[in-house]
Specification:
Keywords: Receptor, Transcription, Transcription regulation
Helix content: 55-70%
Distance between the termini: 24 Å
Number of domains: 1
Order of helices and strands: EHHEEHHH
Protein name: Nuclear hormone receptor family member nhr-5
Number of helices: 5
Domain NR LBD: 1-146
Strand content: 5-15%
CATH architecture: Orthogonal Bundle
Number of strands: 3
Structural class: mainly alpha
Oligomer: single chain
CATH superfamily: Retinoid X Receptor
CATH topology: Retinoid X Receptor
Length: 146
């Protein structure tokens, strides 16, 4: 935010390989950078430059934005019904929380719930890129708690 030196890596939601548990912090970090970019651009559009508001907004929207982003992209790109594509050319399977002992970001059946409650409906809806972008803006701008 505000002119920091951030190194960007390509975010590609392909299902070439299964992701290992040790890769999840890097995936979360890259999604955090994406959330910062979204907030920064949205604040530029509405001409608000308050850094405290930006930080609070990133803290609020990071998790819902990450889950929404991987759900939409998985629904659009993946043919396998029981995977979740993540941003490092990989995927996690529905039952990943049973195989990983570390309490990472896919604990509490996040992959399973995302597949059942988001990815499957998004596949049926055939959500468009423009609709996904608008939903991301709504997720960022919505101040309620999840």
């Amino acid at each position: 935010m505000d002119g920091g030196n951030i190194i960007y890596f390509q975010m590609r939601y392909d299902s070439f390989r299964e992701v290992e548990a040790g890769e999840l912090p890097a995936i979360a970090h890259r999604n955090l950078i994406a959330a910062i970019d979204w907030v920064d651009h949205l604040f530029d559009i509405i001409d608000i430059q308050n850094l405290d508001d930006k930080v609070a907004t990133v803290k609020h929207c990071f998790a819902p934005l990450m889950v929404f982003a991987f759900s939409v992209v998985t629904a659009k790109n993946a043919k396998q019904p029981d995977i979740v594509c993540v941003c490092n050319f990989g995927h996690v399977k529905r039952d990943c929380c049973l195989r990983w002992t570390e309490p990472y970001h896919f604990a509490n059946r996040l992959a399973e719930r995302s597949i059942d409650e988001l990815i499957s409906p998004f596949r049926r809806m055939n959500i468009k890129e423009e609709e996904a972008a608008l939903m991301k803006a709504i997720i960022i701008a919505n101040p309620c708690e999840f």
